[in-house]
């Protein structure tokens, strides 16, 4: 089964805040204004950061991307590709799906410990910001 990652113990608040800071550092380096959410394996919020000037509409979107990446155990890009590249529009009928890049699962020692979601830029900017932070966990 694809994306069959076992659930692990949730990321701690301290580590989640470190990931938010790593994402913010990446966004600052590139001149982007982001909202960043880190969630546990169930998709419940652990840490959040909104950079000065980041668009307010992106607050719930960042949380949604993180929640979906955790619950479905895959990057949200998988849903975007399913819809845009392959025309699998039925994907949009699945509960709580968001077909937009910027949600990345956090996997440590082969277990899902949460996910990170970013929103505020283009899909590729959101994904790059979250990937930079997630790479500190996903090795």
Description:
The structure is a single chain. This protein is an alpha+beta fold and 139 residues long. The protein has one domain: 2-Layer Sandwich (Beta-Lactamase), CATH 3.30.450. The protein has four helices and four strands. The protein has helices at residues 13-30, 58-72, 77-84, 123-134; strands spanning 35-39, 45-50, 103-108, 111-119. It has a four-stranded antiparallel sheet. Helix 1 crosses helix 4 (123-134). The longest helix is centred in the first third of the chain and has 18 residues, at 13-30. The mean pLDDT is 96.
Overview features:
139 residues, alpha+beta, Beta-Lactamase
Give the termini separation.
22 Å
**CATH architecture label name:** 2-Layer Sandwich
* H and E order: HEEHHEEH
CATH superfamily: Haem-degrading domain
Strand % is 15-25%
Name the average pLDDT: 96
Number of domain units: 1
Largest sheet: 4 strands, antiparallel
Radius of gyration over alpha carbons?
A: 14 Å
CATH fold label: Beta-Lactamase
Widest sheet: strand order? 2-1-4-3
- How many runs of DSSP E, i.e. beta strands? 4
Quickly count the helices.
4
């Amino acid at each position: 089964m694809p994306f069959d990652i076992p659930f692990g113990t949730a990321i701690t608040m301290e580590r989640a805040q470190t990931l938010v800071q790593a994402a913010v550092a990446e966004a600052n380096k590139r001149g982007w204004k982001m909202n960043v959410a880190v969630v546990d394996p169930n998709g419940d919020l652990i840490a959040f950061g909104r950079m000065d000037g980041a668009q307010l509409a992106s607050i719930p979107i960042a949380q949604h991307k993180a929640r979906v990446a955790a619950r479905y155990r895959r990057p949200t890009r998988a849903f975007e590709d399913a819809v845009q590249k392959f025309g699998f529009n039925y994907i949009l009928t699945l509960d709580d799906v968001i077909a937009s890049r910027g949600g990345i699962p956090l996997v440590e020692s082969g277990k899902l410990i949460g996910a990170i979601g970013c929103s505020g830029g283009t899909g590729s900017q959101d994904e790059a910001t979250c990937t930079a932070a997630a790479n500190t966990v996903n090795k």
